[in-house]
Specification:
There is one protein chain. Helices cover 44% and strands 8% of the residues. It has 208 residues and is mainly alpha-helical. A two-stranded antiparallel ribbon has the order 1-2. A hairpin with a 2-residue loop joins β1 and β2. α2 packs parallel to α7. The longest helix has 16 residues, at 35-50. The termini are far apart.
């Protein structure tokens, strides 16, 4: 996102918006705007992702911003902290922000330079298209992304088998068992408190 800042203004003037955000299992690219120009926007964003190179000066600036973002977790409202700790308990692959902060303290540009190609080398891609875009247009854009990532003389990645795909997993709580966790607020100057009551419901679908 930082490297695309110069492109952002022109895209917004043209009624196009994009975002690249991280998820538990990777990252998500979101494009919105006029459908007849989305293909151009997608091409630009994917090109930046696949040719990404770490710039040391920008790395340290963004590193400091991320450190401050994590440190601000302790100043969140109690109900936000309660939801955060609940997600740590039930969602697989969730890590405390304190762990991330500890890693950030020793992270250097060369670490990201070595790690980024590894991210791209073993990926799978999921797509979702909605709005007035035609199905053949969506399929064309999907094919373009796959051609860039999986095809060519030097493919960036080898497509994973379905069994290797990562999925969001939630701890299956036992029936008729109650768990109670207490956690002291991280902001000592905040006298408020919160109670989060989490109920897990199983839904079964029968296809006939």
């Amino acid at each position: 996102m930082d490297y695309l800042n110069e492109y952002a203004y022109d895209a917004q003037v043209a009624g196009l918006y994009y975002a690249i955000s991280h998820t538990n299992n990777g990252f998500q690219v979101t494009l919105t705007g006029y459908s007849h120009k989305l293909e151009i926007l997608l091409d630009t964003v994917i090109a930046k992702i696949t040719t990404f190179e770490v710039k040391a000066d920008r790395f340290y600036v963004i590193k400091e911003l991320v450190i401050k973002e994590y440190e601000n977790y302790k100043f969140q409202q109690p109900y936000q902290q309660a939801m955060y700790h609940c997600s740590l308990l039930v969602k697989a692959g969730s890590w405390p922000w304190t762990d991330a902060l500890e890693v950030l303290s020793v992270l250097e540009p060369e670490h990201l330079s070595r790690f980024y190609p590894q991210i791209l080398s073993r990926i799978f891609i999921e797509y979702y298209a909605a709005g007035n875009i035609e199905s053949n247009e969506a399929e064309f854009m999907i094919q373009h992304v796959e051609d860039v990532v999986f095809m060519g003389t030097k493919p960036l990645s080898q497509a994973l088998f379905p069994s290797q795909h990562l999925t969001n997993r939630v701890v299956n709580l036992e029936k008729d068992v109650t768990y109670c966790y207490t956690k002291e607020g991280m902001n000592p100057s905040d006298e408020n408190s919160a109670l989060l009551h989490y109920i897990q419901v199983s839904i079964f679908f029968q296809v006939s």
